[in-house]
Amino acid sequence: xxxxxxxxxxxxxxxxxxxxxxxxxxxxxxxxxxxxxxxxxxxxxxxxxxxxxxxxxxxxxxxxxxxxxxxxxxxxxxxxxxxxxxxxxxxxxxxxxxxxxxxxxxxxxxxxxxxxxxxxx
Length: 121
Fold this sequence. Notes:
The chain is built from 1 helix and 8 strands, in the order H-E-E-E-E-E-E-E-E. The chain has 121 residues and is an alpha+beta fold.
C-alpha cells in the first residue's frame, strides 16, 4: 500500500512539473526560425529567436540589413526592439505561429512585401 502511495505522489509531482514547463513555453516564441512562407520572394523573410532573448529579423533578400536586438512578450504581443532603430516591431503570438502587426510596427521599405497579418510559420 505504501508503495502505491509513493508512486501516486511521484506521478502527481511529475504531472505538476510538466504542466509548469508547458505554461512557461507558451509564454513566448519557440527558440527557432519562423518564416513567412506565403512570400513570393525566392528567399523567404525569416524571424529567429535565440536563448539569450535576442532576435534576428530578415525582411527581404533585397535588403543588406538584418534587424537584430532584444524581444519581450506583453500579453499576446511580441515586441522586437532592433538595435539602432527607434521603432518596435510587433507580432502577435498565435499558438505555433506569429502574425505580423504592420499597423503597430514601423514602416518597412517598399521592396519588403510583408503585409499586415502575414503569418510566420
